Amino acid sequence: MEAAKIIELPKFEDLRGNLSFIEEMNHVPFKIERAYWIYDVPGGEVRGGHAFKEQQELIVALSGSFDVLIDNGIDTQIFSLNRSYHGLYVPAGLWRQMKNFSTNSLAFVLSSTKYDKNDYIYNYSEFLNLKKP
Ligand code: TYD
Fold first, then answer.
1. CATH number, position 90
2. What's the number of domains the chain is made of?
3. Is the beta carbon of 34 within 6 A of some atom in ligand 1?
4. Which of 23, 25, 43, 72 is at a distance of 20 to 30 A from 31, taking alpha carbons?
5. What residue numbers bound the domain in which 111 lies?
């Protein structure tokens, strides 16, 4: 099973300000079908808490910081995102939660699919069942 991993994005440092970018099939291993972002998260709130059957994604903390908890049904990993030139690549089939959002944080997500509510697994027991060999 493929694991989630941090992808280091290009960073052009400049006295006028830095610049980073993402190209599909290059910095992300998929064709980008959708972008969405999560913002104005009240302190202590948790987002996510589900898995995707097909959707792969890249999550970037464009501003501020938050933690992404990734669970493959056996192990759990926590990725703390706080750099706008780091993307967390999340392959399909992993349970994920986003929490500990700092004030004014901005979570930017690139997705390999259009929004499809049938791609979500919201039930953790169902997720674990699907992971069984
Ligand atoms: P959801 O993915 O469940 O949010 P989270 O996992 O962060 O808790 O999405 C919340 C709502 O937004 C849900 O009712 C569906 C809608 N939505 C769209 O319509 N399009 C999208 O691309 C996304 C990500 C969500």
1. 2.60.120.10
2. 1
3. yes
4. 72
5. 5-10+29-131
